[in-house]
Give the backbone structure.
Amino acid sequence: MHLERDQFVAETSRPVARVSLTPFGRRGLWALRVFAVAVSGMVVYTFAAALH
Amino acid sequence: MRSSTSAPLVLPPLTEQDAVRSADRSRVHEARASGRRWPLLWLLVGPGILAMLGENDGPSMLAYASDGAQYGLGLFVPFLPALFALAFVVQEMAMRVGAVTHRGYGELVLQRYGSAWGWFAAADLTVTNLITLIAEFVAIRVGLAYFGLGAGFAVALGLAAVLFTFSGGRYWRWERIVLGLALFNGLFLVAALLSGSHLGAASSAGFSHLPGSVNTLLLLLASTIGATVTPWMIFFQQGASADKGMTPRDIREGRWDTAAGAVLATLFGLGALVAGAALLGHGGISAFSQAGFPGALGHVAGGAAASVFALGLIEAGAVAILTISASTAYAAAECVGVAHSFNSSPREAVLFYAADFGVAALAAVVILIPGAPLLSIALNANVLATVLLPVSLVFLIMLANDRGLMGRNANRRATNAVAIAVATLVGACGAAYGVDSFLQTIGVVGS
């Protein structure tokens, strides 16, 4: 077998542990989510308005 | 997850996927043990070149050609290599995380940061991929139209390519077929050589043809960035590196693979730009819009340049359909937690193959709808990718810095500095364009 132990499907199917974010990290990720949704919405609205 | 290099005492239960991947890895071990550098590199190249040349897709090449036709060479000749250098930094991180953890991007985000983020990233990818895939079929259609063939033929060609690469149930076979096809991206360089003597005003245009309006300049920047670094490339290269069976020992070759992809993509992208620049002073972007790019190029640079460019568009669209569909399949199957490998047979990985073919088929259906705004979709695909890219980039940087997963292969300070600068630049360009366009549309600011 030429695979490393952690390459086997049995190993990669096991989930990695969840990381605990700091309050600052959590707020940062929420800001990122709001940013992505808001700016995408603006781009899609502009695109849709341009079609009419 | 640090990988162990010592031989395991007790093997985990074997799957068909393990057996196939092990056979591929045995050749890597033999090449490394015999000290043969080029055969080793040959075995390990693939994900990096495919991600970079896959992003030299139909809409990107049309965008470069349109930039050349409208603005000449001045800004873009230094801008494109700089953007692909940034793409190298991002893609090297994706390769490294895949090689060290043996897991795809979607599943790592989902497991490490929670299912809400994993699904958000996968949904963000699926939306941009679907729009980009529609644009790929449009590009194939534009290329085929030059030879008098219609939308039905474009759909059949794109979907047949996806089905053909499934045969064999092996990642290696899939990768080599797509890699062989991707090298024809070099047709854009041939088109540039054939058009070169017709450059005229473009070669001396400098920066004089740049847009005067801030919104147009932002659109130009956002769409050009979106033509070089996108979310699907991150999902694809990390997933493909894991699927190929790369390990931390292969990171050096993975870097060469990614660098080779960046150099080839820059050269071929510049080819499309130079070919497009032949139209500057000959009707520019209006000639492009009226006749379709190959037709307009044919009037100025001759039938040979136009035919080669049209063939290049067909190739660029087809390769991107294969790689972008694959990235969607990796993301969907990783998030659901089922088999996600080309080393599995379609019977073993039903969702993976269904997502791969399904997303391409859905995009194909859209281009068959009479009156669908295909040109607008093609032009906006890159912009939307730019807007959604910061989310993917931030998580990639977090994963690549996660010492619990990456151990001594975690990001160094210099890599972080460049990666954070890329995320900030991309976020700022996308946001500036999105907000400015929106305010203009609702009439708050004038155009």
